[in-house]
Write a structure and sequence with these properties.
heterotetramer; A: alpha+beta; 6-stranded mixed sheet; 5 helices; 6 strands; 26% strand; B: alpha/beta; 5-stranded mixed sheet; 4 helices; 5 strands; globular; binds adenosine-5'-diphosphate
Chain lengths: 154, 114, 154, 114
């Protein structure tokens, strides 16, 4: 439990929060929201695309794994921009704890093509490769939380 | 909730273009299976996956594409990908898709080079 | 007070809610959100444009008039789609009650051009003309609420 | 928060095109005032407001345009609007802007007709 942190979010003037039904496809709404916010504060369109994919993958994981496809569950996405740091937290209501380092084999395209590894298992890999920083092992009073950080450069 | 994807097939000699309109997600699997089967039934040997600049492709959709690549690899069929935005070209490189499919900007370019 | 209704909103599987800081420009985030939701459920792009303008105007009014530009206030936008009805509620924290029928002169372009009427005062007019139905005189425990309804046709 | 609008002026004989990139909101007022003043200083007689298909225009921005129309009307200057999306053409008709400015699809069409 050493790495587990309990997080409380506040809604201040730098923060936007959206609450979604646990329905695949609705991650697009969180993508549009975060993309518009990031564009307003001045991120390049390239970085906005990275953000969109990362937000999409985190929301889908929250829906599929965190909330186990329960249609009554919620996914809450909290976006914060301050001091040139854009952070997105995606929260689910899954009580199951998990560790991104232990959970999954690193994706290997050769193995996938040879059917030696599942074709899935790309979400966390993409997130890690697209964000500046990510923490997977956060918890809220409700469930899991993934926090992704994008830094403004230039 | 509508999960919309449409795949239209276009024959160009021994090449079949899969014209892919809409979202490429985990829900796309039956659409790709059907397209691949019907192209196979017509005795195709080469495939071009034609995407559009504004496509939404997520990791579930990429997994579906990897399964398709695995099939074409097994059957010794050549496969190319066109029309990806710079973002998805980057993603496809990251994942390694580009090791098993040539990436071209347009179907015309792919047709000329396959 | 005959027309005043107190409203309680629930977050069910048909509902998306977004909470925004009271900052002009951030209405674009609510627009993107509602537009993506409406597209997902199948609205035509023409109707989505109408929705975007109506949501924009209601959010700007909530920021400028409801919350009187207070940077610490919030605007909450609740979107619901069920039975071919898309409704958007925009809530502010303004305690001042107002009545859309009494508050404002009907915009008249001739008068505006002749400087006989303020060039402003178009927001409510646009909303009324773009939505299928609108109620301005709703209140929540927090403040004012405007509810706009878009019906799926065809 | 960046409120971004940029208005570039282009002279075509006695016509000045205002090339309007970005959001048309209440924050645009000083930009339009400056553009109008500088066009006036050069002795313009006709104006084309060139918008782009993806422009965001809200009621605060429309109020700014109405003020500009009021000025041009007072000074007997002809003004046209181009490039509006079908949605904003509808909005401009609703508000009555189209009674005081001719709406064309392109600047070329406006130039040919003014
Ligand atoms: N929000 C979450 N809650 C619980 N487990 C998760 C969550 N996100 C990811 N995981 C775990 O990590 C694994 C890898 O996720 P990912 O890389 O996105 O691939 P996939 O979703 O295709 O399995 C998942 O299979 C799941 O076991
Ligand atoms: N959310 C609100 N809270 C309080 N008053 C409001 C609200 N929305 C609109 N109003 C009142 O209605 C008037 C007309 O609004 P509108 O037509 O949008 O034009 P404008 O905002 O340019 O004045 C406002 O000036 C204000 O007095």
């Amino acid at each position: 439990m050493g790495t587990e942190k309990e997080v409380i979010q506040v809604l201040d003037e730098h923060t936007i929060e959206i609450s979604l039904p646990n329905q695949l496809g609705y991650e697009r709404i969180a993508m549009a929201c975060s993309a518009t916010f990031a564009r307003i504060v001045g991120f390049s369109s390239e970085r906005v695309e990275d953000l969109k994919t990362a937000v999409s993958e985190a929301c889908i994981n929250a829906m599929e794994h965190g909330n186990k496809n329960d249609p009554d569950a919620r996914v809450v996405v909290n976006m914060h921009y301050e001091d040139r740091v854009f952070s997105v937290s995606v929260m689910d209501q899954g009580k199951g704890r998990w560790n991104s380092d232990e959970c999954c084999e690193e994706p290997d395209i050769e193995k996938k093509i040879m059917n030696l590894q599942t074709p899935r298992g790309l979400g966390i890999f993409l997130i890690k490769n697209l964000v500046d920083q990510v923490e997977f092992n956060l918890t809220t009073s409700e469930g899991n939380m993934v926090r992704m950080i994008f830094k403004m450069t230039g | 909730m509508k999960q919309e994807i449409e795949i239209r097939l276009e024959k160009h000699g021994d090449i079949t273009i899969f014209d892919i309109q809409g979202d490429v997600t985990v829900f796309s699997e039956p659409f790709f299976n059907k397209a691949y089967k019907s192209a196979n039934d017509q005795g195709l040997s080469k495939i071009i996956l034609k995407f559009y600049e504004n496509a939404y492709i997520n990791s579930g959709g990429i997994a579906v594409l990897i399964q398709l690549l695995a099939e074409t690899k097994k059957n010794n069929q050549l496969i190319s990908i066109t029309g990806l935005s710079p973002h998805f070209q980057k993603i496809f490189n990251m994942v390694g898709i580009s090791k098993f499919a040539r990436i071209y900007s347009t179907p015309e370019e792919a047709l000329a080079n396959m």
